[in-house]
Design brief:
disordered N terminus; nine-stranded mixed sheet; 14% helix; alpha+beta; globular
Length: 293
């Protein structure tokens, strides 16, 4: 009897991450194309809105203006280093931004997307980093860490590959010769409270979003991160890829602040409870290549 109780307790501990991801990822995804949500900016129109409770949030600071640095700029993290928190996708891990029809894909890229939506062999489920939109669509979230003294911002992933991305704010330009990588090369600057990031030099070894939108090494993205209040970050992104798109594609969504959560250990392979993402939704899947498409 005692051994049975121990086994049940162990099973509960193992399933906890899966239950959390399932619950978050199962929320209603955004509808329509383009930028999905419009969030009032508390900086405009006079006084900031009065603090109020946020439905579904667990504790943490009340809704109000974003925390600011000594020079008056909105911070991407807590008001002080002692205040911890991460940014989660506002739709709980929605698989993409906008509907499929809104993405201006070339015919070959549309065919690849159709294949991936049935055969969901996503590299992220095999612990590979994900650049572009996909970086912000994991239910475990990301943490922004600012280092003004070195003029850099780091974005740390939690679930999956446990990797980080560097954004250079020191005025440098992109190198003339870049080795393609998962996150590419990011340079940024501030426009008021908005961090603007220009990134190029991507490889083709990841999906741009959770549904499998393809891209090529010609991809270049421009991102805008705007913290509009204590719990909301507006994420706007324009993707330009002459190799896969017929026109630049603009989309976006909101990130939400989860107060009190710090980076935690996540063992990608052992904690992977997404078998349908690893084997796909079809009974027949092409296994002729050992490399994930």
């Amino acid at each position: 009897m005692r051994s049975g109780v121990v086994l049940l307790a162990a099973a509960a501990l193992l399933l906890a991450p899966a239950l959390r991801e399932s619950a978050l990822a199962g929320q209603q995804p955004a509808q329509g194309g383009g930028v999905q949500v419009s969030v009032p900016d508390g900086r405009a129109g006079g006084a900031a809105p009065a603090p109020q409770a946020v439905p579904g949030r667990r504790g943490g600071p009340p809704l109000g203006p974003p925390p600011r640095s000594a020079d008056g700029r909105a911070l991407l993290g807590g008001a002080t280093p002692a205040i911890k928190g991460v940014w989660l996708p506002g739709e709980g891990g929605a698989q993409a931004a906008g509907d499929v029809a809104s993405v201006p894909l070339q015919p070959w890229a549309r065919a690849v997307l159709d294949h991936r939506r049935v055969n969901q062999l996503e590299p992220h489920t095999r612990c590979k980093p994900s650049g572009g939109i996909r970086q912000f669509l994991t239910p475990y979230g990301v943490e922004f860490v600012e280092f003004p003294e070195t003029q850099r911002v780091y974005i740390f992933d939690i679930g999956g590959p446990h990797t980080y991305r560097t954004i250079y704010l020191d005025g440098r330009t992109h190198p003339t010769s870049l080795e393609p990588s998962y996150y590419g090369h990011s340079i940024g600057w501030w426009e008021g409270d908005t961090l603007v990031v220009d990134t190029t030099g991507f490889n083709e070894s990841f999906w741009i979003d959770r549904r499998g939108t393809p891209h090529t090494e010609q991809l270049r993205i421009l991102e805008r991160f705007t913290r509009v209040d204590t719990v909301t970050m507006k994420y706007e992104v324009t993707l330009d890829d002459p190799g896969a798109l017929t026109a630049p594609w603009k989309t976006g969504f909101n990130l939400r602040w989860e107060d009190g959560t710090e980076l935690f250990e996540y063992v990608c392979q052992q904690s992977n409870y997404a078998p349908t993402l690893m084997v796909g939704g079809d009974t027949s899947i092409d296994r002729s290549s050992a490399i994930v498409p």
